[in-house]
UniProtKB/TrEMBL annotation:
This is Cobalamin biosynthesis protein CbiX. It comes from Pseudoduganella flava. CDD domains: CbiX_SirB_N (cd03416). Pfam families: CbiX. InterPro entries: CbiX-like, Sirohydro_Cobaltochel/CbiX. The lineage of its organism: Bacteria, Pseudomonadati, Pseudomonadota, Betaproteobacteria, Burkholderiales. Signal peptide: none annotated.
Length: 126
């Protein structure tokens, strides 16, 4: 049986409070997809890292993994660092089907939601 998981992949920061919006996002997604293991992983400064979280999921029997970079743009981390990490994941876990979504900020629906928020902010201030 296929077991699916979703990792929200974020940069990470020194301040633990920085992760709070990502934790809320994780909880919202998990509530909407109860059959999917939804978790966070970080590039640096926070744990778990992407390789560690993926290994944990594989050990739990996950066979399909989707990674969503929760970055606003396709900067160096998404364009250079993430592909290297994905290739290593595929070498380390050849039976794992890995899919990587576009960076959240590159998605038209996400940009529209942010634009809606900005417009509401202007209107609320008027």
């Amino acid at each position: 049986m296929t077991q699916r998981a979703l990792i929200l992949f974020a940069h990470g920061a020194r301040a633990a409070s920085w992760a709070a919006p990502f934790e809320r996002l994780r909880d919202i997604v998990a509530a909407r997809e109860p059959g999917v293991d939804v978790s966070l992983a970080f590039l640096e400064l926070m744990t778990p890292g992407l390789p560690e979280r993926a290994a944990q999921l594989v050990a739990q029997g996950v066979t399909e993994l989707t990674i969503v970079p929760v970055f606003l743009g396709q900067g160096g981390h998404v364009l250079r660092d993430l592909p290297v990490m994905i290739e290593q994941l595929k070498r380390d876990h050849p039976a794992l089907a890995v899919r990587v979504a576009e960076a959240a900020g590159e998605n038209a629906a996400v940009l529209q939601a942010i634009a809606d928020y900005c417009v509401l902010s202007v209107r609320d201030g008027a």
